[in-house]
Amino acid sequence: MATLKGPGEAMEYDGSHLRIGILHARWNSKIVDTLVDGAKKALVSSGVKTENIEIQSVPGSYELPFAAQRMYSASQTQSSTAGNALVSAATDLLASTSTSDLTTTAAPTASKSSSALSQPLDALITIGVLIKGETMHFEYIADAVSHGLMRVQLDSGVPLVFGLLTVLNEEQGMARAGIGEKGGHNHGEDWGKAAVELGVKRNGWA
Ligand code: DLZ
User: What is the DSSP string of 125-161?
Assistant: First the structure.
């Protein structure tokens, strides 16, 4: 039965050509790790290859915006380095091959040859769990992280999936990771699907 809450029915998107990052905080790791697993599971079921899922962690949620910005920027640098290596391999090959040989010569490969995609991240899922304590700490971090992540995605042009749970207690967090006493839905799965949809749409709109 369709529920009122949740992202609703969506098309299935093919993630087989995408490179997706998962960046997570290590605070509240039992909940966070389950959410990360849910996100990974959804990425793989949408066709994203495991070698194209890059996972990084930071101590707490407050670190997510800065690390997301650096992670995306590093992926751009890696992809341009891989592109340069390919151009340089092609140039070397052309220099050492007579024109008549070209049709029978294997295509050049960059030195980092694997099936992993050498392209910037198409989308990045940021995951953290903030649990309210006795002070105002929670409010400040939740506000700063939300605004920081929005700023990073609009400034960089890479879609960030907002996997920050801001919960009043541990039970609420467990329920949203699907490990509560009454079960619950693992929101990480929704975030994985959102990353694939946004990665595909981002490329379509580029
Ligand atoms: C300090 C702190 C506290 C009290 N609670 C959480 C939390 O519930 N979830 C979370 O992800 N991080 C928490 N942190 C750590 C901060 O996010 C941050 O890592 C530190 O303030 C260092 O910058």
Answer: EEEEEEE--SSTHHHHHHHHHHHHHHHHHHHH---EE
CATH number at residue 152: 3.40.50.960
Q: How far is the CA of 187 from the centre of ligand 1 (A)?
A: 21
Considering the domain boundaries, does residue 9 fall inside one?
no
Render pLDDT for 59-83 as a digit per residue (tens, 0 to 9): 999 999 999 999 999 999 988 887 7
| Assigned domain for 38 exists | yes
Average pLDDT of the segment spanning 5-13: 80
pTM of the full predicted structure? 0.86
Contact 123, 158 (CB under 8 A): yes
- Confirm or reject: Cβ of 170 under 6 Å from ligand 1: no
| Atom number in ligand 1 closest to CA 60 | 19
What residue numbers bound the domain in which 136 lies? Answer: 20-76+116-205
Q: How many CB atoms lie within 10 A of CB 20?
A: 28
Domains of the chain: total? 1
Residue 12 lies in a domain: no
**What pLDDT, on a 0 to 100 scale, did the predictor assign at position 101?**
52
